[in-house]
Design brief:
By secondary structure, this protein is mainly alpha-helical. Helix 32 packs across helix 35, helix 46 packs across helix 47 and helix 64 packs across helix 65. The protein is built from 106 helices and no strands.
């Protein structure tokens, strides 16, 4: 009792888990009550029981279990989280409840299962129930069957999947338990209710007694279809409708029947594998000579193919054998048997047979010559079955090929086959392009002499008429007489189409008399034949879609107007010829009698008067009453077109044009006048009128027909002038009318005649015409003329070049419609592809070249023979150029070669397949399944080059075929299923690239999902990444809901991961590309949408690839709205009718133009009737107001998208706006104020994708507005510009860049002075980035538009701008200073009056900036384009180049290219924050860079203290750090500036902070962009130590050593990070190396204890600098440093120069490994400059020859590595012909060429191994003689050449000239070629090693690394054993003082001769770091890296003039005085 009291106190959930069953019972009861009380289905209470529900149903106590089941049922019914428990609870019910003896438990278990189905969990429930069918306990099996039956009966076959149930039924009927069999019988009856006869085939093999019982039960069932009686939670609307129907009776039962799902029996069957079951001797028997053996083989196959569904496999051999039997077997019985086997194979494989269809159809058609009925019937069944596996498009060529056959039986059966095929077609699957050639062939047959051929043709034409309607067929039936036309219509009325809902008997008889039904062809719309249309028995037809009825009704209404259109067409085009009498009679009704009498008068004046009357008569007559033929025949009366008076003739021609324009002008009328018009076209006086008349006739009778007639007539004449003018007219007419429908083949032959004409005018006209045609046809046109003479072909190519890349002009003329009936004709009338240009080209049939020998070669075991076969095939394709798709057995053999073990052959096969795609064009589509899918298999190859080749080939195929063929079927999913990581990553990457470009995909794409999810969890990281990238592209087509549902089948752990990935992918799903809107002009369909291409071109400033893909889409998706349909989800149903309506709405214009609507909106706003568009954040009332205003002038669907809460819809709206921008420019302008207001709302969205799309649209709209010369109104500007300016302060650079671009563009549509005011308002923002950007924009405006742009006055505006100079943000200060400097450049000193009073500090900053900007004016011009983009790293002093509105887009592109160039080739520039800090904090540190030992005397230490911080002593603490420096960049700038501090502790602390950053890998990247700053600050500190601290005796030297240690340690750490080390620029590296070498030579360090250790550290650091820096920069800096050192201290400090040269030697040894990455052009320029300053004579005068040897060694090494190519690297040298370097290199390379690049000038060999050191001259001669002897013998030639190569390589100065001179010129050339060959062979293996080893010759004899030891450095202070005395340093000091202006001028003049070469303006020198800081820190790189600018070969000249130095010193003193006075 105590225990009971204890558990009674427990909470409910704990009771449910208690070990006492009573406690659990009580818990279950209370839980059930509690569940019923919880009202909220999302209450957190439900979650407490998630883990307990399974225990509720699996309780071990039967009594408790019942209560648990009841509680569980309540829980599942009410809890929103119940779905999570489906799997475990259902499993528990099946295993622990269904085996219970109590019926109540079983009932509750079933109810639980059904309730789970009701809450949308049908799939997991069904899965568990099907598992239960395999349970050993029969009770469980019976219960599971019963549950499935109830579920099916209540929820229907839409919810419960029938396929797995049907699959399980045969096994259940075999059960030993009667109860199971009885329940299975009931289930079979239930299934039959839903799918009817489709259940018969799967059950045909069960026990015959059971089948009989089932048949009896099935007969008893009502004929009406079953209906769903219980509904899912998401189907509550259906439930309501069902209840209403129940209440009203079953009146609407028929309507419900349509909605019943139709199941295809084929889908319910299990495929049977038959290939392995074929007799082993099948292929031998089928080739046997005895017909009985062949019959046995076929009968065995027939038994196998009777299986209704066959497993996919390689049936190529089987099909090949059957094809041979049908085509060549002499026994007709075997032919019929073979046809039956083929039919069975096609029916069993369905779509999988498509690959073989095109191979067998020609054989079947040819075999119809047999007349025996049984053979003919078998062939009919076979060809029908084959047709159902493919499309009529694929078979059309084969059918057309036999339509011309002489055998009437073949023609008859081909027509009957077409008639049967048409019945399965819809208007969409029987397009005009396919119908036209078929109708042309059939129309010939209705005139055939054989009646059976005629009847068959009538039947086929009648069927086609029924399918597409009269409207589309009429153009093809124009020339058919009435009797035949009536016969066609009669046949049409008798036809029953199979794509609609027809009676089964009619359909069956129509398709196959006596045969069983077959599968309907898959169409693009997915229409299939209804199962009800088949006969009883095993059916193989899939179901029809619900749209079948609609498609049936489609042609009906169309036939009315179509009929009228036909009559009108006949009246106009096929008008009968009239006699002269009739013509005169009809003409007299229109013209006065006098006019007719004077027409043939002999007096020209009377004839002229007659013409005038004629013209008046035509003009006043109404169109319908104008007898065109009669009038033109009157004009043709004598003298007719032989009229001699040109005035009369001109009038006559004008009247012809007038009649053609005004009347109903037929082709009969045109034929009367065309000959005369062509004759007059070349006439000087009448030619223009004649051509105008021709154009009018073309408008009336169509250009294609007119052009064909006119060209033929012109070339029938012999007048070259007429021919030339006709061709000119045609060229102009094509541009006016477009290319639609032109029969190119008809006049190509005439163009060829014209090209061969002797008259140059005719040839020129022909070439001009070809140029116009090239616009429309492209490259294929050239193939017609490849046989022309080279000279003529070059002229044609030149003409093609002129139009290359141009877009065809929009047609401005079209075929004129004459009456209302014709105007209703569909747009397809002129939708002829221009087309199908590929079809116009002559294609070769290579099937006869694909011989059996070639096939055998391709399949041979020997790879060499296989390769021969592939080579032969490649040759065949190259010769044929364009081929027909009939390639025999080649596909199957090539498929085998894709799996070849020899990878070279695989690659060759891929190349051949690529050739085939080009040669075959779109027809390659039929080979996709055989050859295309195996190409994807190659993705799994382990070699990357093979995979790359496969991708390239695949893309070339997809270009021709489109993606649909590849995504159809299971092939792609089967490939993805293969667990090959290479295949998966390549395939997923390819799909991720292709899927976003598609507007729709086949439904089979969903089959890839399970494998895609598997890839998300693949072990290979690359596969996982590719799968993640592919997810959004799959979701784009399948939708999120469908993909989540598919993920539900995964294991729980996998499911969670996949769903999480899906949620991430949902945010980045790309928008579907929508087609551009169709224009009303039909001829627009003939060209690739020009408007779209214009839009794409204008969008070049945008990087959004999705938008570009969207704009370039060439097709119009009529159902574009379908992409925006809301997918049926939980609780929703999408009605079909509104969707159709939406589709129609979306096809129209998006803007409704209402006159004066914009003006009215402005008036309303002024009158305060509406809210003024002014807010800080948009409130709801503004949004509602805008929505109301838009409702009257924007399409409803677009408005819904624009104001939808989901951002995805905003993207769709923007996409629509982009699409319609060009086509609806007027509407856009009318609604511009509303559009701009809506866009301002989007500025407040947080989604970056939307914002980028908005900016893209804005760029395009302002481009269009500027082209339209539109100007923004003040209302539009004030409601938009302020919000745009707010976005200029965005943190993302990309957004800021686009906003700046838009602001630039707006100056084209809105006055700059008004823009100025808005931007000035932007300065009030709290956002510092926005203020800085606004200041830059103001500077740009002032620079372009002068001070007049400043509003309200320049003074007021500039005061406001100048006030920003005191801003605490560095970027704002910089921008303000730059803007004021821009004004200063315009108005000079007047700027100081305009800006008003500034504080002394701000004024000094401004003055300094003005001075600095004046020093380098050239920099401003070179940096203008970079300033356009105004990125943070660019120089703030460069003015913004807004040089006119037209340059904005190009400037933007240039700025982008400049940015990419600078980031790739040079180190980043110094950020502007650092520039300003240096000016303020350390602006006078420049003096420290002059290397003055006596700086202490001037007490310049103060200059290193921060002038902008009040307390210098506390500098390291930086109390105001956070206020001054807000960003990471600012922090780094601040810390770097402290490195150069004169306070040692401050510097050490700053270095420690930087060291900490550098040592952390994840943070080291933050230093990127600051490396030059840091190095400058570092060597400034080194100079400070060298010049000041070391000279100060009061300072503790330990502190100095500590500082040295920090500096060197920091830099070693820095140069270990390779990416950062590469950023160091050349000028900085030069100064750094200078400082480090000085440090190594500092003798004062020897007196310190740790001095040698410092030198060793410096030694190590220099090694790091040389190895890790950018090789070009370091090599260049060393050359310049050597040059400077030799100039300054030629005879004084040789040790300095020696160390520089040692560094150079080390770099020379590294050259072989870095030669491919250095900028050789730049290195050679530096050497060129060195040689100009130090010519050879001057170097020889030096005491030491090391400089000479060093520079020669460098040049020889470069020559050795680059060979003759080195001469291509002299592009940066001006006047290189005069360069000493160029002459020297020519000598070296010429000498090297003679020796195959191996010999080096002996002058440079003093330090290397020489011949004299190795062996005597006699030995040389002996060795070389032996080598040449070997070369001379045939056997040892190669060995001799190899030895000679090795000998020359070993002894590089060996002279082989004497041996060569003795031989002939031929032998010398032979040796030279042989040496090159040996070198090339070895180049790949040992080039680097050989290069580096052979570089030893260039090293001087005493060359040794300065890294050797610590003692090696001090000893470096002497040269040749002599100590360097104090005099050396004194001399050096004197020179330094002279350079800095501290000595008098006379001394400088004394030095002038020694450095006279410096005065040459063309010899650039490199400034030191101090000079760079003087000029401008931001242009540090420009001092030496001028040669990186490709535009200029003239680097800015910098000279060390005395006056400049003096001016700098004066400036320095003034600034020092100012700083001291301010501190006082």
């Amino acid at each position: 009792m105590a225990d009971e009291c204890e558990w009674m106190k427990l909470p409910i959930d704990q009771k449910c888990e208690h070990k006492v069953w009573k406690a659990r019972l009580n818990g279950y009861e209370e839980a059930a009550k509690q569940f019923q009380k919880i009202q909220d289905e999302k209450s957190p209470e439900w979650s407490k029981y998630l883990g307990l529900i399974k225990k509720f149903v699996t309780d071990s106590n039967a009594v408790a279990q019942l209560k648990g089941l009841e509680a569980a049922l309540v829980y599942i019914e009410n809890a929103h989280v119940a779905g999570r428990t489906t799997g475990e609870v259902t499993s528990g019910v099946v295993n622990k409840v269904f085996n219970q003896p109590k019926a109540r438990a079983k009932e509750l278990g079933m109810e639980i299962c059904l309730m789970y189905i009701e809450i949308e969990k049908a799939e997991p429930v069904q899965e568990e129930l099907l598992k239960g069918l395999d349970n050993k306990n029969p009770k469980i099996v019976v219960a599971c069957i019963e549950t499935i039956r109830k579920a099916l009966g209540e929820f229907g076959s839409k919810i419960v999947q029938l396929k797995p149930i049907v699959k399980a039924l045969p096994k259940l009927f075999e059960s030993r338990e009667k109860a199971v069999r009885d329940e299975a019988k009931l289930l079979a009856v239930e299934v039959y209710k839903w799918i009817r006869d489709a259940l018969r085939p799967p059950l045909q093999n069960i026990n015959s007694v059971q089948l009989k019982e089932l048949e009896e039960e099935w007969v008893k069932l009502p004929t009406t279809a079953s209906r769903q009686t219980r509904f899912l939670r998401s189907q509550q609307d259906l439930k309501t409708k069902f209840e209403q129907h129940q209440a009203a009776g079953d009146d609407e039962e028929g309507e419900e029947e349509v909605e019943a799902p139709v199941v295809d029996a084929y889908d319910l069957l299990e495929p049977v594998e038959i290939l392995s079951k074929l007799p082993k001797d099948f292929y031998e028997k089928i080739e046997a000579k005895k017909w009985q053996e062949r019959k046995e083989a076929l009968e065995a196959l027939e038994m196998l193919v009777k299986n209704p569904k066959l497993e996919s496999g390689d049936y190529a051999d089987v099909v090949r054998a059957l094809k041979k039997v049908i085509g060549k077997d002499s026994n007709v019985l075997l032919v019929a048997l073979g046809a039956k086997c083929l039919a069975g194979l096609a029916s069993g494989l369905r779509k999988k047979f498509q690959t073989y269809a095109t191979h067998v159809v020609p054989t079947l058609l040819e075999k119809f010559k047999e007349k025996k009925p049984q053979v003919v019937q078998a062939l009919q069944e076979a060809i029908d079955a084959v047709f159902l596996t493919t499309t009529l498009q694929n078979l059309s060529e084969d059918v057309l090929g036999v339509m011309e056959n002489k055998n009437p039986s073949i023609k008859q059966q081909a027509s009957l086959f077409l008639a049967r095929s048409f019945r399965y077609c819809t208007p969409s699957t029987l397009p005009k392009s396919l119908l036209k050639p078929l109708c042309a062939a059939l129309l010939k047959q209705i005139n055939d002499s054989a009646s059976e051929v005629r009847d068959a043709a009538f039947e086929a034409l009648g069927t086609a008429l029924k399918v597409v309607g009269e409207r589309l067929m009429n153009p093809f039936l124009v020339d058919v007489d009435k009797l035949k036309l009536d016969k066609i219509k009669e046949c049409s009325d008798k036809v029953d189409l199979l794509h609609g809902k027809k009676s089964s008997a009619g359909a069956s008889k129509a398709v196959k008399p006596g045969g069983q039904g077959k599968v309907a062809p898959s169409s693009s719309s997915g229409d299939k034949v209804d199962a009800h249309t088949t006969k009883s028995g095993p059916s193989k037809k899939p179901s029809t879609s619900k749209s079948g009825a609609q498609s049936k009704k489609g042609p009906g209404p169309a036939s009315g107007p179509g009929g009228k259109g036909k009559k009108a067409t006949e009246t106009r085009e096929v008008e009968p010829e009239l006699s002269i009498e009739v013509c005169e009679e009809r003409a007299s009704a229109v013209l006065p009698a006098s006019c007719l009498q004077q027409l043939d008068s002999s007096n020209w004046k009377e004839r002229l008067a007659s013409m005038e009357e004629f013209q008046k008569g035509v003009e006043v007559t109404e169109k319908r009453e104008l007898p065109c033929q009669a009038l033109v025949r009157m004009l043709a009366k004598k003298p007719g077109w032989k009229e001699t008076n040109f005035q009369v003739m001109q009038m006559k021609l004008y009247i012809v044009a007038l009649i053609a324009q005004k009347g109903s002008f037929s082709r009969t009328s045109a034929e009367v006048v065309l000959d005369g018009l062509v004759d007059k076209s070349g006439d000087i006086k009448c030619g223009i009128k004649a051509k105008e008349a021709l154009t009018a006739i073309a408008e009336a009778c169509s250009l294609p027909w007119t052009a064909e007639q006119v060209v033929a007539m012109a070339f029938a004449q012999k007048n070259p002038k007429n021919q030339a003018e006709v061709l000119n007219w045609l060229a102009a007419a094509i541009k006016e009318f477009g290319f639609a429908g032109l029969n190119v083949k008809a006049f190509i032959s005439n163009v060829k005649i014209a090209l061969a004409a002797t008259n140059p005018a005719v040839r020129t006209s022909a070439i001009t015409l070809l140029g116009v045609m090239y616009l429309y046809m492209g490259a294929p046109l050239r193939m017609f003329f490849e046989d022309e003479k080279p000279a003529l072909l070059s002229q044609i190519d030149a003409e093609f070049e002129k139009v290359q890349g141009q877009t065809p002009p929009a047609p401005i003329r079209r075929l004129v419609k004459r009456d209302a009936a014709e105007e209703e004709a569909p747009e397809e009338q002129d939708e002829e592809e221009n087309g199908h240009v590929q079809d116009l080209l002559p294609r070769a049939d290579i099937s006869d070249k694909i011989t059996s020998e070639l096939i055998e070669k391709l399949g041979d075991k020997n790879w060499k023979i296989r390769k021969e076969g592939l080579d032969e095939l490649s040759t065949i394709l190259n010769e044929a150029k364009l081929i027909q798709p009939n390639i025999g057995e080649l596909p199957g053999v090539l498929k085998g070669r894709l799996n070849d073990s020899n990878k070279i052959l695989v690659q060759q096969t891929l190349t051949i397949l690529q050739q085939m795609a080009t040669a075959m064009g779109p027809h390659i589509k039929q080979h996709v399944k055989v050859l295309g899918i195996p190409m994807i298999t190659v993705f799994g190859d382990s070699k990357s080059n093979v995979r790359a080749a496969a991708v390239t080939t695949l893309n070339s195929w997809v270009e021709k075929t489109g993606m649909k063929e590849w995504l159809d079927g299971e092939d792609l999913s089967e490939e993805l299923k293969k667990e090959n990581p290479f295949l998966r990553q390549e395939l997923l990457g390819w799909l991720a690239e292709k899927l976003p470009t598609l507007r729709s995909t086949p439904p089979d794409l969903i089959l890839c999902l399970p494998h895609l999810y598997c890839c998300l969890e693949d072990r290979n990281g690359d596969v996982r990444k590719k799968a993640q990238d592919a997810l959004p592209t799959f979701m784009m087509h399948l939708g999120y809901e469908k993909m989540v549902r598919a993920a539900g089948k995964l294991k729980p752990t996998s499911k969670d991961q996949v769903v999480a990935a899906l949620e991430k992918a949902q945010a980045v799903v790309p928008a579907k590309p929508a087609a551009p809107a169709k224009t009303s002009s039909k001829s627009n369909a003939t060209r690739p949408s020009s408007t779209a291409s214009v839009r794409a071109h204008s969008a070049t400033t945008n990087d959004d690839t999705d938008a570009i893909a969207l704009k370039n889409d060439p097709k119009k998706n009529k159902a574009a709205g379908s992409t925006a349909k809301v997918k049926p989800g939980i609780g929703k149903k999408v009605p079909s009718k509104p969707n159709l309506k939406d589709d129609e709405d979306k096809s129209g214009p998006i803007f409704i133009i209402i006159p004066n609507a914009k003006e009215q909106r402005v008036k309303d706003e002024r009158a305060l009737k509406v809210l003024k568009w002014n807010f800080t954040t948009p409130r709801d009332e503004y949004t509602e107001q805008l929505k109301t205003q838009m409702s009257s002038c924007v399409a409803k669907w677009l408005q819904d998208e624009m104001f939808h809460p989901d951002f995805h819809h905003h993207i769709k709206a923007l996409t629509a706006l982009l699409e319609h921008l060009e086509s609806e420019t007027e509407g856009t302008v009318v609604c511009l104020d509303l559009i701009l207001k809506w866009l301002t709302l989007r500025f407040f969205d947080t989604n970056t994708t939307v914002l980028m799309k908005v900016l893209e649209y804005l760029k395009l709209i302002f481009t269009v507005l500027s082209k339209e010369d539109y100007h923004l109104t003040d209302n539009e500007a004030s409601s938009f510009i302020p919000y745009l300016i707010n976005k200029v302060g965005e943190p993302k650079d990309l957004i800021r860049k686009d906003v700046r671009c838009i602001l630039n563009m707006m100056c084209k549509v809105y006055p700059a002075s008004k823009m100025f005011n808005f931007i000035m308002e932007g300065l009030k923002s709290k956002n510092s980035k926005q203020r800085a950007e606004c200041l830059e924009e103001l500077g740009a405006l002032i620079e372009v538009y002068d001070l007049n742009v400043c509003q309200p006055t320049p003074a007021k505006a500039l005061k406001e701008i100048a006030s920003q100079i005191g801003d605490r943000d560095t970027s704002v200060r910089n921008a303000a200073l730059n803007t004021v400097v821009t004004v200063y450049n315009i108005c000079g000193d007047q700027v100081f009056k305009l800006i008003g009073n500034l504080s002394e500090k701000e004024m000094s900053m401004l003055e300094e900036r003005i001075k600095r900007s004046a020093k380098k004016p050239s920099v401003v011009s070179t940096k203008q384009e970079e300033k356009t983009s105004r990125t943070q790293g660019l120089n703030p002093n460069a003015a913004a180049p807004r040089k006119g509105c037209d340059e904005v887009p190009s400037k933007l592109n240039q700025a982008r290219s400049n940015n990419s160039h600078s980031t790739s080739e040079s180190a980043p520039m110094i950020p502007r924050e650092f520039q300003l800090d240096l000016d303020e904090i350390e602006n006078d540190n420049n003096a420290g860079g002059c290397e003055l030992p006596d700086l202490v005397q001037h007490k310049l230490d103060e200059l290193y203290e921060p002038v902008c911080i009040p307390e210098p002593k506390n500098r390291s603490v930086s109390p105001h750090f956070d206020e001054i420096h807000g960003s990471t960049d600012s922090t780094i700038n601040f810390v770097v500036s402290q490195v150069a501090s004169s306070d040692i502790n401050t510097s050490i602390q700053a270095l420690a902070q930087i060291d900490e950053v550098l040592r952390q890998e994840d943070k080291a990247d933050t230093m990127s962009g600051h490396i030059d700053q840091f190095l400058i600050a570092t060597f400034m500190q080194l100079r400070l130590i060298y010049n000041t601290h070391m000279a100060d005796e009061k300072l503790n030297k330990t502190e100095i050593l500590k500082l040295y240690s920090c500096i060197i340690g920091n830099m070693i750490t820095l140069f270990q990070v390779e990416t950062l080390a590469k950023e160091a620029s050349m000028g900085v590296l030069k100064d750094l190396m200078h400082g480090l070498i000085l440090l190594m030579l500092d003798s004062r360090l020897d007196d310190l204890d740790e001095g040698p250790q410092v030198i060793r550290s410096v030694n190590l650091l220099m090694v790091k600098v040389l190895e890790k820096s950018d090789p070009t920069n370091i090599l260049s800096s060393l050359i310049v440093l050597l040059q400077d050192s030799l100039l300054a201290t030629t005879n004084n400090t040789p040790k300095f120069s020696e160390l520089v040269m040692k560094c150079l030697w080390r770099m020379i040894r590294l050259l072989p490994s870095i030669v491919n990455i250095i900028n050789v052009d730049r290195i050679l320029l530096d050497i060129h400059n060195f040689m100009r300053i130090f010519p050879r004579e001057r170097l020889k005068q030096m005491k030491c020859d090391l400089p000479t040897r060093t520079h020669k060694t460098l040049l020889h090494t470069l020559c050795k590595l680059l060979g003759p190519k080195i001469m291509d690297h002299l592009v940066l040298i001006e006047n290189k012909n005069e360069s000493e370097l160029e002459a020297y290199l020519r000598r070296v390379t010429k000498h090297s060429m003679a020796l195959s690049g191996g010999k080096i000038d002996s002058e440079t060999e003093k330090g290397g191994s020489t011949i004299e050191d190795k062996e005597s001259k006699a030995k040389i001669s002996e060795t070389l003689a032996e080598i040449f002897k070997k070369i001379g013998s045939k056997e040892n030639t190669r060995e001799g050449l190899a030895e000679l190569y090795e000998y020359r390589k070993k002894y590089s100065d060996a002279d082989i000239e004497p041996f060569l001179r003795k031989s002939s010129q031929f032998f010398q050339n032979y040796i030279e070629r042989g040496l090159r060959l040996v070198e090339n062979e070895r180049e790949g293996k040992g080039r680097i090693s050989s290069s580096s080893s052979s570089a030893g010759f260039s090293s001087p004899p005493d060359e040794s690394s300065y890294v050797a030891s610590s003692t090696s450095i001090p000893s470096a202070g002497s040269t040749n054993g002599e100590e360097v005395g104090p005099a050396v340093y004194l001399e050096r000091l004197k020179i330094l003082r002279q350079r800095c202006g501290l000595e008098n001028n006379s001394k400088l003049e004394e030095r002038q001769p020694a450095t006279s070469l410096l005065s040459k303006p063309t010899v650039p020198t490199v400034a030191s770091s101090s000079e760079l800081l003087h000029n401008k820190l931001a242009h540090l790189r420009d001092s030496r890296e001028y040669n990186q600018e490709p535009e200029s070969h003239h680097p800015p000249v910098q000279t060390n003039s005395n006056t400049t130095s003096a001016a700098n010193l004066d400036d320095l003193k003034k600034r020092l005085e100012r700083i001291k006075s301010s501190r006082k």
